[in-house]
Amino acid sequence: MLVAVSALVVSLWSARRQAADAQKAAIMRLVAEFIVRCRTEDFQAAQRAVVTELKSSSAPDPQGGISGLPEPLQSQVKKVGGFYQDVGTLVVLGVVPEYLVVALYYRFLRQVWLAVWPYLERERVMLDAQNAGSVWGSFEHIAVCALNTPFCDITRTFRRRTYVP
Questions:
Q1: Residue 118: cis peptide before it, omega within 30 degrees of 0
Q2: CA 164 to chain centroid
Q3: Which of 81, 118, 135, 136 could form a disulfide with 62 if both were Cys (CB 3.0 to 4.6 A apart)?
Q4: Contact at 8 Å (CB) between 60 and 69?
Q5: Residue 9: pLDDT band by 50, 70, 90 thresholds?
């Protein structure tokens, strides 16, 4: 009887461990896919354009919102903002740890959010008037974390070594 109970406990523990390992592997594949996606030249160029053009002295008027931006800038904003929305949704749903996403994209989250915020704020007002929902709430969640948290506080959760000559 004791042997049967022991075998059952070991079997349950092993099954639980395998399920946890499978979940971690799936999350890592997802994170790797996002990393590859954001490092493409096309995405990098769109991100540079968003930050540069929306923060320049000749930037379009934010009163038109995102949908009022000229092409190709509008598509670039949607591509970059949509990426951070997707990543932020994984954070909000608890699929990927917030500290990991914010650490990976810290500088760009801050730059892109500050560039698109005036346009997004106006877009939200226009959508609210149409009772059409909101835009990029999960992007906002991770951007606010990046804006309000010093980078050293985020990376403190990592065990990392530093070079000291």
A1: no
A2: 32
A3: 118
A4: yes
A5: low
DSSP H helix total and E strand total for the chain: 6, 0
pLDDT per position as a tens digit, 125-161: 988 877 766 789 999 999 999 999 998 888 777 776 7
Q: In the numeric block, which tokens belong to residue 136?
A: 């990029």
- Which residue reads 């949908």 in tokens? 67
Give residue for tokens 């799936």.
26
Distance of CA 140 to the CA centre of its chain: 9
Q: Any idea which residue has 């004791």 for tokens?
A: 2
If phi > 0 it is left, if psi is from -120 to 50 it is alpha, else beta; for residue 127 that is alpha
Distance of alpha carbon 160 from alpha carbon 24, whole angstroms: 21
E-strand ranges in 24-136 read none
